[in-house]
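WARN  no MSA supplied for this record, continuing single-sequence
INFO  ligand: 2-phosphoglycolic acid
INFO  echoing inputs
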Amino acid sequence: MKQAAKIIDVSAREVLDSRGNPTVEAEVLTDSSIGRASVPSGASKGKLEALELRDGDRRRFHGKGVTKAVSNVNKIIGPKVRGLNSLDQSKIDRMMIRLDGTPNKNRLGANAILAVSMATAWAAANALHVSLYRLLEDSRGYTLPVPMMNVINGGEHAGNELAIQEFLIEPVGADSCTDAIRMGSEVYQSLKEVLISKYGRGAINVGDEGGFAPPLKKTRDALDAIRHSIRQSGYSENDVRMGMDAASSTFYDNKARAYTLDGMRMDANELEDFYASVKDEYDLLTLEDPFEEGSFRSFASITKRIGKTTSIIGDDIYVTSVPLIRKGIREKATNAVLLKLNQIGTVTETKAAIQECARAGWEAVVSHRSGETGDPFIAHLATAYGVSFIKAGAPARGERVAKYNELLRIDGELAGRGKFAGRRFS
Ligand code: PGA
Ligand code: ZN
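INFO  complex generated
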């Protein structure tokens, strides 16, 4: 293997994400390659996420411009990275963390830093003429993740009244990741028919992540439609499991310490009972962010109650931060973690968070954001470290299928040697 690909230039520009908002795209040029990456953006963010630097100038993009972050890449980060070896990912990431000097990357912006971090990895892979997952982890064998496909959107991702943000299908019974993607697509198309026949064509408008956003109000109505579509596609509920991301901070009233869901107002104990019965009725394989992000105790309580057979995934409570994940491990708050590159801001720190999960014997889920780009980086990240799940939205819309299609390419490149993580769950 060639050991160096020296960085000769770094630049960034403002491009649009899938919601039409500006985001940062960076290019890293080495003496033998180019790498390009763009960063996603969330809507239901954790309070402790690394800072997404926005201009705040109301005259441009309603204040959402990222020219400051772009200029930080061009003028501050670029000159420091130039001359370094693009293969030294952790050295470059550590240098950028130091250059920023703040705990949440609020000086340079996590969007600026992450764009360069990811583009560096792409440039290094291209210089070595290897696929990115092989660059990230040079392994003898790879395991591809189970796709968690968000087929019904609610919460902040849709204009309907569903409080729960995401209703997911998880084709664990597939023989391969390629098969799982086909099965997910089939169920998605069946769901479209089920929703039309039950609620009319207005029910198949889609939300931010490409899932349908039917005018439903109740959690069980969404799960019933999905269950029906799984059966209609000829699968059993053991082949295609179901999950939810409640993103419950979005329906939590901090003052009243109460959650509003399905037309009811509930305290944490009542909400736990609600989840436990939904879990029993629909055999949920995964449940993400069931409580608001400060409630480690409520998380621990539901994990104790249903965690043997359900992955309780922490997203907003951990924000891909190793110290917060360690706190969760100490308090047995969950048994799984959602990992998002832009919650923390570098490839190296995301890898450290995945390794922390592995040490604890917890499931790791690599995830997109609701505002995405065509960058398929996370398909490689998930494969490189053999995480159990990847959450990349519905099997529809360009920015979502960019990830699933990249998994198809990776699976193809591995030519039958790629293992599939679904076997453990079926
Ligand atoms: P976000 O939501 O990207 O809008 O923050 C995704 C999630 O909560 O998992
Ligand atoms: Zn989430």
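The chain is about 40% helix and 15% strand.
INFO  checksum written, moving to next record
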